[in-house]
Amino acid sequence: MKPRLFFDTSVVVAALVRDHPQHASAGSLLNGAFSRKEDTFLSAHGLAEVYSVLTRAPLPMLIFPGDAWTMIEIGLLPNVELVSLTGAEYREVVEDCSRKGLAGGWIYDMIHIKAAHKAGCNRLYTLNVKHFREIAPDELRDAITAPQIALIRHGSGEPLPHPHRGRCRAGPEPGSPRFRSYTSFLSAARAGRDSTDPPAAAAGG
To answer: What are 39-73's pLDDT values in tens digits?
Structure first.
């Protein structure tokens, strides 16, 4: 069966932020899927979540809104298909949560699961495996796994190609030489220049 991969917000954020403790495994998994041109999916709601987390999470370095969009636009959107739920499907999610007695933030996990099911995904990657398995339908439960486990199962554990590594990181402190070099890189990226790696001064973070 051809892999149809769904990535939860938690994995996408970990892949995009180099200082995230799960960056190595999440980045290798996501970019490996990109380099192999596998069918890769993210919920439309997840796209908004990724932006929200990138611009508000207590990361070691502040990510400005414009930089967060550049990371998403260049490092993510060209390689994933967004899955949108209809109004009727959102109603089903809310009703399902009510029936199962799920309150608060559980509904957001249900939205991802609903989107993965709608896209016919046979693998769902998340850093919240326990929660997702508790509420997933039977046919999707065994497909839910963490990036670390997926790399052990499907590869040697060696880092996979990471073509967007240079573009998927928070910027240095404003006013520093690295910041100026980094902003020059972002400007080049927004202008559509064919550049894979940031300037050497930015590479050190």
So the answer is: 999 999 999 999 999 998 777 677 899 999 999 99
**Token pair of 44 as six digits:** 């439309």
- What is the per-residue pLDDT across 61-70, written as a single tens digit (0 to 9) for each? 778 999 999 9
Residue 48 amino acid letter:
A
Q: Which helix (H) or strand (E) holds 15?
A: helix 9-16
> E strands, the chain, where?
4-7, 39-43, 81-83, 123-125, 144-145
Residue 82 in tokens:
């967004």
Residues 51 and 132 in one domain: yes
- Number of compact structural domains in the chain: 2
* Reported pTM: 0.73
Domain span at residue 29? Answer: 4-163
DSSP string, 77-99: GGG-EEE---HHHHHHHHHHHHH
Which whole-number Å values give the CA distances from 27 to 137, 183, 195, in the listed order? 27, 23, 19
Residues in Cβ contact with 193 at an 8 Å cutoff, skipping those fewer than 6 apart: none
Q: Report CA dihedral (73, 36, 193, 170) to the nearest 10 degrees.
A: 50
What are the average pLDDT values for consecutive 10-residue runs of the chain, which has 205 residues? 92 90 91 92 97 84 89 94 98 96 94 97 94 93 88 48 36 42 40 38 33
Same domain, 115 and 29: yes
Same domain for 148 and 197? no
